[in-house]
Amino acid sequence: MPFKSGRFQKKWRDSIPTIVFLVICLALWQIIVSYFKLPLWLIPSPIDVLKAFWNTRELLWAHTLTTLLETTAGFVLAIALGLAAGVAMVLSPLIKRLFYPLLIVSQTVPLIAVAPLLILWLGYGLLPKIVTVVLVCFFPIAVSLIEGLEVSDDDLLNLLKSMGATRWQILYMIRWPNALPSFFAGLKIAATYSVMGAVIGEWLGASSGLGVYLTRSSHSFRTDQVFAAIVAITILSLFYFVLIAGIRRLALPWLHTKED
């Protein structure tokens, strides 16, 4: 218990500079808007954003739930596909030679150019938004897993091979444990991208979601509501990031013991 308490106090002390800097930025923002009497439609003050967040909380929550559903479904599907692709490419050099270059090239195509095609092919329901999230999250998950699986102790690999271990046994006993830190690093990156993917899909065609809320608020010059939506998107992204970090702590406790 004292160890955990001390670790919590250390993390709290480490976060104080960030909190102080954030408070200073918000205070300066409020002072500038108030001093120059900037109009609400141009740039709202933090207090205006807070009021908009509270006054439209029920509507904002309804749109957030839609984005949450799309993001969660797409993120889980991206993890499953990333795991399958990563394992397949590591176990089969032929599959890697065929598909890894395509995986890299796919990242040169802007998502904003692909999303309209998904709307055209899949309609205006949840499916195109889920697919958009998958496209955003799949790359960092798959690449981080592949890189992690390929970095292993050569002596251990040769030892297991000399003992007649199969590729699956080597994967389970050596490659997978070594790949977990890299895999979770990719999950953290994908977690922060996932909400953005859902919002982009909603911009191009949807009836609900934070992207729809953003678009409607922007068209009506309710900049305070636009900032409120940005706050909601940020909170949602941080939620997924913290969730993955918590799962990583449970799955890899020895790493956090070293770090602490």
UniProtKB/TrEMBL annotation:
Membrane topology: Multi-pass membrane protein
SUPFAM superfamilies reported in the protein's UniProt record: MetI-like
Record carries keyword Transcription regulation: no
Lineage top rank: taxon: Bacteria
Keywords per UniProt: Cell membrane, Membrane, Transmembrane, Transmembrane helix, Transport
GO-annotated cellular components: plasma membrane
Start and end residues of each ABC transmembrane type-1 domain: 64-244
UniProt-listed Gene3D superfamilies: MetI-like (1.10.3720.10)
Transmembrane regions listed in the UniProt entry: 16-36, 73-91, 98-124, 130-149, 193-214, 226-247
Transport keyword on record: yes
Coiled-coil residues: none
Swiss-Prot/TrEMBL GO biological process terms: transmembrane transport
Localisation per UniProt entry: Cell membrane
PANTHER family per the UniProt record, alphabetical: ABC TRANSPORTER PERMEASE PROTEIN HI_0355-RELATED, ALKANE SULFONATE ABC TRANSPORTER-RELATED, MEMBRANE SUBUNIT
Family stated for the protein in its record: Belongs to the binding-protein-dependent transport system permease family.
Stated name of the protein: Carnitine transport permease protein OpuCB
Lineage: Bacteria, Bacillati, Bacillota, Clostridia, Eubacteriales
